[in-house]
Structure formats: structure tokens, C-alpha cells
Amino acid sequence: MRSIKGCSFEYVDGDSEPVHKKASQPVRCIETNQIFKSMDEAGRVMNVDSHGIGLVLRGKRKNVRGYHFEIVDEEG
Fold first, then answer.
1. Is residue 17 part of a domain?
2. Is residue 37 part of a domain?
């Protein structure tokens, strides 16, 4: 398996075309202290746009619907 910019690629069943899998990272809502498995899960539960969460995490936006998010360090 090969990983580039958070995306994993692997060949499945001997096919010549790689399967693209987006590596999800856990995120935390700072206001509620809730930890989510991914931006998509956080978006569904918090009723906010997951794309907006990504913009917050990349520093392109301050918040999404008043919520601030950060990537959770998986080591500790």
C-alpha cells in the first residue's frame, strides 16, 4: 500500500487500477470536546458541512457555524 498526502492506494485482486481510499483522521470539536472518527462523521453529528470543517482544519476559515475543530493526535 502507498500513501500520498493522506490518501492510500492499493491494488486489489490483481487489477491494474489502484483503489483510492481517503485516510480519515479523528477530529475534535473544541466547544463540545466531542471526538469524531472523521470530518464526515463530525459534520453529520454536528449538522455542519464537512467541507467547512476541512477549511477550519486547514486554517482557511475560523469556524463553521460557530464551532472550532482540531485534528486529534492519535498517539496520545
1. no
2. yes
- Give the domain range for residue 60: 25-76
Residue 20: is its pLDDT beyond 80?
no
- Residue 27 near residue 71, CB atoms below 8 Å: yes
Closest C-alpha to 43, from 64, 72, 71, 15 = 64
Structural domain contains residue 16: no
pTM of the model: 0.68
Residue closest to 64 by CA, chosen among 42, 38, 37: 42
Instruction: Pull the grid cell for residue 49.
Output: 458541512
**Cell numbers at residue 11, please?**
491494488
